[in-house]
Write a structure and sequence with these properties.
Layout lengths: L17 E11 L5 E8 L3 H5 L5 H5 L4 H9 E4 L7 H5 L3 H17 L3 E5 L6 E5 L10
Antiparallel strand pairs: 1-2, 2-3, 4-5
């Protein structure tokens, strides 16, 4: 009986847990420095549960977004201690951007989206967390 060498298993795709982003407007810190690029990590069950015990969230359920984003944003420009106070001072457009990014990476499991050219209808995939502006790749 002839024996053959085992076929090496394919290397499994590594789970991407951090996602770089570029804020539409940017966070202006107390010194006046603008911070636009950052990193958001995947949320854990703890990230979604702990804020529910926060008194600020109990008093105002809308504050959940602030506490949750502060837990999962690991960097914002030079800032490595992103806390609720930083998230509170974001411009509304940036907060909305981060909420959508959080939803995409935690609910859908990826930041890729299938799109089609409005002119010719050609379909392709884009990475929504690439940090680029519309029209950039």
């Amino acid at each position: 009986m002839r024996r053959t060498a085992p076929v090496p298993a394919e290397t499994p795709e590594r789970l991407r847990t951090e996602f770089a982003f570029e804020l539409p407007r940017g966070y202006v810190d107390p010194a006046g420095t603008l911070h636009r690029s950052g990193v958001m990590r995947l949320a854990t069950a703890r990230d979604e549960l702990v804020p529910l015990r926060d008194d600020r969230v109990r008093e105002n359920p809308a504050y959940l977004t602030v506490v949750l984003l502060a837990r999962v944003i690991t960097e914002l420009g030079d800032i490595t201690d992103v806390h609720a106070g930083v998230v509170e001072d974001l411009f509304a457009a940036d907060l909305a951007f981060l909420q959508e990014l959080y939803r995409r990476i935690n609910s859908e499991g990826h930041t890729r989206a299938g799109v089609a050219c409005p002119s010719c209808g050609h379909g392709f995939t884009v990475d929504m967390a690439g940090g680029g502006r519309p029209g950039e790749s």
